[in-house]
Design brief:
The protein has helices spanning 38-45, 111-114, 156-159, 162-177, 203-215, 229-237, 250-257, 274-278, 305-308, 331-342, 361-366, and strands spanning 2-8, 11-16, 26-36, 71-79, 90-93, 96-97, 125-126, 139-143, 147-149, 195-199, 221-225, 241-243, 263-268, 283-291, 313-315, 351-356, 376-380. With 383 residues, it is an alpha/beta fold. The protein has two domains: 2-161 and 347-380, Medium-chain alcohol dehydrogenases, catalytic domain (Quinone Oxidoreductase, Chain A, domain 1), CATH 3.90.180.10; 178-315, Rossmann fold (3-Layer(aba) Sandwich), CATH 3.40.50. The N and C termini lie close together (12 Å).
Length: 383
């Protein structure tokens, strides 16, 4: 089969590789679409490598080339009886391997899986991230329980957004579980989050706006700081108050919009290190800070010194951890998919770039970030 292989940092090429072969308990999925994530780009540049050896050292791409792509949707080609899947079933894929998806009896599950945090499994591995074959190929073999069937004709390019949406839902659940001083919808008005600041209106930011408004029912002031006018306008269409940090000082604007109170909840989804230097002027004391974005280059840890005085609750989630449904499938992925299928969360405006097949994928990585109007790229695999 054909696959896009990352053979070295910034060297990606289409190759013929051995066909994916499902083992017991797995399904063979023909790929329809794969979302492109910032994590993919970081691996492509060589800034990140999550494929470790037994001693925790990153294995160079030159030794073990990788097939990236973890936001996967496709069609079941083959699945064993009793898996709940039939050939022709359209599915999204939870890319993570945990105790359940490895077929272990519940009595042998690690503490994380047993408590509903499957993404933190002690033996966790991830298709497209940790060296396991990802979705930038014609097919992939994955545990059948990791496949969540669609219940609609949602186009593949939009179904691929289920994975980042699941991550946003997981992050929101982690914030709720933190039991901070302020919370969305708190019964006590004194503990209710009245204002939220979201930095960055990329894919995650735009999904956060919709989840806050349409899923969590937040009806207070929702400020989105985003320099790109197209993304800012889209955030406003989804229910936010847009703010251009290049035209107005972020702290001054936040104070103005909140009547001097500043925000009870800050969601950092930009990956900008500059934001950390601004936090003391953005939040109330004992606010919640959700560290969602990655990167943050250019700012040292000393930027956190003044933040300590505010005694905030810092939440740093990753991935889409969660409990499993009775059929063994990931509950949060199913929830994300249903939100997309129902139209409660819209992805049509977020997916701005459709890469036409595997052959065009290397060029898409080469051109990453050159078009400021781009939000989300999805590779659509040719049939």
């Amino acid at each position: 089969m054909k696959a896009v292989v990352l053979a070295a940092p910034r060297r990606m090429e289409v190759r013929e590789v051995p066909d994916a072969q499902p083992r017991a308990g797995e399904a063979l999925v023909r790929i329809e679409a794969v979302g492109l994530c910032g994590s993919d780009h970081h691996i492509w540049t060589g800034e990140a490598n999550y494929n470790f050896d037994a001693r925790g050292r990153a294995i160079p791409l030159q030794e073990q080339p990788q097939i990236l792509g973890h936001e996967i949707t496709g069609v079941v080609v083959e699945a064993a009886a009793g898996t709940g899947l039939k050939p022709g079933t359209r599915v999204i894929v939870d890319q993570g391997l945990n105790c359940a998806s490895r077929g272990r009896a519940r009595a042998g599950w690690c503490g994380y899986c047993a408590s509903g945090h499957t993404h933190q499994c002690t033996d966790y591995a991830e298709h497209g991230i940790t060296g396991l074959q990802g979705g930038l190929a014609e097919a992939v073999a994955v545990p059948a329980t990791n496949c969540v069937p669609l219940q609609s004709d949602l186009p593949p390019r939009l179904a691929a957004v289920a994975e980042p949406l699941a991550c946003v839902l997981h992050a929101s659940e982690m914030v709720a579980a933190a039991h901070a001083r302020f919370a969305i919808g708190a019964a006590d008005p004194a503990r209710r989050a009245a204002s939220i600041l979201l930095t960055g209106a990329g894919t995650a930011g735009l999904l956060f706006v919709q989840v806050l408004r349409r899923v969590l029912g937040f009806d207070g002031l929702l400020i989105v700081s985003e320099p790109d006018p197209r993304k800012r306008l889209l955030a406003e269409r989804f229910g936010a108050t847009g703010l251009d940090p290049c035209a107005e000082d972020l702290a001054e604007a936040t104070a103005r919009l909140t009547g001097g109170r500043r925000v009870e909840y800050l969601i950092e989804a930009s990956g900008s290190g500059r934001v950390f230097e601004q936090i003391p002027g953005l939040i109330r004391k004992q606010a919640t800070i959700l560290l969602y974005g990655y990167g943050h280059a250019g700012t040292g840890l000393e930027a956190l010194n003044p933040v300590h005085w505010f005694e905030p609750v810092l939440v740093a989630p990753t991935g889409a951890s969660g409990a499993l449904d009775p059929d063994g499938r990931p509950a949060i992925y199913r929830r994300a998919l249903r939100l997309l299928e129902s139209g409660t969360v819209r992805a049509e405006e977020i997916v701005t770039d459709v890469v036409p097949g595997l052959a065009a994928t290397p060029a898409a990585f080469e051109n990453w970030g050159r078009n400021p109007a781009s939000i989300k790229g999805v590779v659509q695999i040719e049939r």
